[in-house]
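ARCHIVE CARD
CATEGORY: sequence design from structure
SOURCE FIELD: tokenized fold
FIELD CONTENT:
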């Protein structure tokens, strides 16, 4: 048994079962034993990979999308180019390189990264040498200037709570201890005013998920964009409205029991994009766009063909496989979705349709 598992059990014995959000927070972010706090999960032999790590094309196209949006809103200077959960810094490096030729953009940009993991902050510092970067613990610390923000696979890492419908009330799914092992249980049913809008589209026994931390982040983004202009691009796996249990663990690129290896497996849940928009009600949001469709509209075919010209043999094969993985409907193309948010009246970034 690991030190974190011992501590979780002691805490449950002392104060009762934990919400999934409490369990996830400790597993992911505990300073000594947390999954993100202690490792680079994206490295070779890591537990999972992400679109920016699969191909440079992803960050490049997102960078050009942000640049066009910045130009469309009058190229304000200075502005914050922000990314919560930047991982190894790969996407920001690709964004920066791809936007080198945009007149005035680099001179106007301040890069703001929101990162909880000291290990990953160190990698980002190394990767982004020469860029004007500041790190923050929270989106509340973003400066009061126009904001262009992009989040890829950030919201899926934020702690969720789960509720199971019981009549007109809800039982919360909680983590307790049974026969010496961590086990899921259900709290007593209670009314949940924040889930009132889910009584019409759920049946008794259905599970819905909430993500209080995501709402806090969205409120900060809303405040900046509504007051100063800009845009937020959010890319993640999930759907418009959460229904069912999407809490999952990944360890060594395979699914794992989320309670089996606390602190040693990545824990995520699908993102409920409707909930993100509800937490930023004064912003205008785009239609939810499948990642494959967005990349196609942003010109991935032309970029892929251009890069292929300089590649031969196994490198060309790997490039083609990466293109496939990012765009194919059977791979990341449909499971991953993108949402853009802007101030009312501002143009949506390229590649996004109005609702
Ligand atoms: N965006 C990157 C990394 C995704 S992994 C990519 O696409 O490759 C999730 C990232 O979010 C990691 O950098 C992790 O350390 C960070 N993170 C997770 N929870 C966080 C929190 N509560 N606050 C800030 N960063 C967090």
């Amino acid at each position: 048994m690991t030190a974190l598992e011992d501590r979780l059990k002691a805490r449950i014995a002392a104060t009762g079962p934990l919400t999934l959000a409490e369990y996830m927070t400790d597993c992911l972010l505990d300073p000594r034993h947390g999954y993100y706090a202690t490792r680079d999960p994206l490295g070779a032999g890591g537990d999972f990979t992400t679109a920016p790590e699969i191909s440079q094309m992803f960050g490049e196209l997102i960078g050009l999308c942000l640049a066009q949006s910045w130009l469309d809103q009058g190229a304000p200077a200075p502005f914050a180019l922000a990314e919560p959960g930047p991982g190894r810094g790969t996407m920001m490096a690709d964004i920066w390189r791809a936007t080198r030729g945009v007149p005035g953009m680099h001179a106007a940009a301040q890069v703001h990264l929101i990162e909880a993991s000291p290990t990953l902050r160190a990698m980002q510092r190394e990767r982004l040498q020469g860029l004007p970067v500041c790190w923050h613990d929270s989106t509340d610390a973003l400066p009061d200037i126009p904001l262009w923000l992009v989040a890829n696979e950030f919201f899926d890492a934020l702690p969720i709570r789960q509720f199971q419908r019981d009549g007109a009330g809800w039982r919360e799914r909680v983590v307790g201890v049974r026969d010496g092992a961590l086990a899921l249980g259900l709290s007593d049913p209670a009314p949940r005013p924040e889930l009132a809008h889910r009584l019409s589209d759920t049946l008794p026994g259905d599970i819905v998920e909430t993500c209080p931390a995501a709402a806090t982040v969205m409120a900060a983004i809303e405040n900046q964009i509504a007051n100063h202009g800009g845009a937020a691009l959010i890319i993640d796996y999930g759907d418009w409205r959460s229904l069912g249990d999407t809490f999952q663990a990944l360890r060594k690129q395979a699914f794992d029991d989320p309670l089996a290896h606390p602190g040693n497996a990545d824990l995520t849940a699908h993102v409920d994009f409707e909930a993100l928009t509800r937490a930023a009600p004064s912003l205008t949001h785009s239609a939810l766009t499948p990642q494959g469709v967005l990349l196609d509209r942003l010109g991935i075919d032309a970029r892929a063909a251009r890069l292929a010209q300089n590649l031969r043999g196994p490198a060309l094969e790997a490039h083609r496989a990466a293109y496939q993985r990012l765009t194919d409907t059977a791979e990341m193309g449909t499971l991953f979705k993108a949402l853009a948010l802007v101030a009312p009246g501002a143009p949506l970034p390229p590649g996004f349709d109005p609702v």
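CARD ANNOTATION: The chain has two domains: 3-29+160-209, 51-159+210-255+265-342. The CA atoms of residues 139 and 217 lie 6 Å apart.
SHELF: design records, drawer C
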